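stuck on whats below:

***
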Amino acid sequence: MKKALKWLLLVVLVGLVVAALMVQWPIEVEVIEVRKGTIEESVVEEARTRLETDFRVSMPVDGRLLRIDLKEGDRVESDDVVARIDRFEREEKLSGLEARQDEIEALIVGVDVAKPKAEDIAAAALVRDEARARYAAAQKAHETSRINLEQEEELFKRRRELFREGAITETEYIEAERTIRMLRAGREEAAETEQAMKKYAERSQVELERLRDSVDDNEYQRVAYKAQLDRVRTEMAILLDELAKSEIRSPASGPVLDVFQEDEQVLPAGTPLLKVGDLESIRIEADVLSEDVGRMDIGQAVEVFGPAVDGTVIGQIERIYPAGFKKISALGIEEQRVRVIIAFDRQELPLRPGVRVDVRFITDRAEDVLVVPERALFMMAGEWHVFVARDGVAERRAVEVGIRSDEDAEIRAGLDEGDLIIYDPPPELDEGARIRPREAVE
């Protein structure tokens, strides 16, 4: 009897265990209500500031350069004196020319009592010869500048085609344009110089002939002295112009990028002295993945933020480079990227060149749409799904996803406003599972 009772108790106990195992206990989950809102799709990249324009400051005339005290990184304002050329020699020449001017003017006053002399005729002949030599040199310089311009124009045509094809950079193209402008200006200046020297040679010839034909007529002296006076005044004007250029001024406000010459030394005209960046041309440069660039356009708003920025500042895309390039990521992956240039208000964001910032490109935006957390979505059979909490049971539902941000996603079909969905569903959750929902804390 006792043995039968033991077997009965054992059977009852096994039955209770089996029944307990067959009972499905509810799974505790977090739920969130589907609501309408605004969602933005964006691309975030690291970027840096750079100067679009810089100026090379060179020796405007030959002379002794005084020591330059500026260092790389120093800031200068537009029209600040950045270098000086010694003035002593030119000031002494100017004093001598001023004395010669006074002398010639006195000679002109006494021309009525003067007679032409052989040495005056010889001096006039020398002036004529010098004028002819200058005219010949001006002709040669003009011809040389014309040939150089024609050759550079042919090269520029090819560079323009290369730039359109993306074979050369914009900087190289701008430099080519600058070279053409300089050569054109040089040719015009050479042409003007040639005409001036031609007139000077013709005038000196006329003055010599008049002197020879008017040995007994002292009126020729007046003309000769007037020509000498014109020449002295021309030389004085050149010296005054060179003296004005002895103070070399900055063409823009910005940082000193390079100092090529520091010590005092004699240098020819055109020698580079330093390079100044134009802060008005500062831009943000970002290298964007090529697959993201297709969703960007000129004028598109860009958020600028990061440790170097106080809050968030809005800029806009100014330029998208036509060609991409390969770049190795921090993880060692080769990526195809495209350079994007972003303009911003320097008054709102006073950054220096070479500063690292973060940028967010807003590529799409939707308002008054159904929005759910990204963590509520999961992929199954190639489609997006969510779990809907209905009457204590998890219901799996396929949804159509639209715009996606880092945290949320737009739902275009499959859900209604007010539906309760399971936030961050656990791995063991399946269709029809019993659940014990509680409100999610995002």
Remarks:
- The domain at 43-52+282-365 is CATH 2.40.30.170 (Elongation Factor Tu (Ef-tu); domain 3).
- The CA atoms of residues 63 and 267 lie 6 Å apart.
- The first helix runs from residue 2 to 22.
